[in-house]
Amino acid sequence: MNMKIFCGLTGLMVGVITTLIILYFAAPSILFIERESRLGYSETIAAIHEAAKIEGWIIPKQYKLDVSLSKAGYEVLPVSVIE
Hints:
By secondary structure, the chain is mostly helical. It is built from three helices and two strands; from the N terminus they run H-H-E-H-E. It has helices at residues 2-31, 41-54, 65-71; strands at residues 62-64, 80-82.
């Protein structure tokens, strides 16, 4: 009986650890799609807004992170998060 519990717990731990390792390496490529735009920053933002409008989507908020970071004393290239 104790051996069955030990084997079961060992198998569970190996499965959890294996899953966590796979997620650690695979999650960044699954969660984010990064493509460099051939347009400039402002033109890219405008194109995203226009494409969303054409598809009938609503963009409730655009966060301009570079503005927030500059207020905190950091200097970064323009960056936005669009909801």
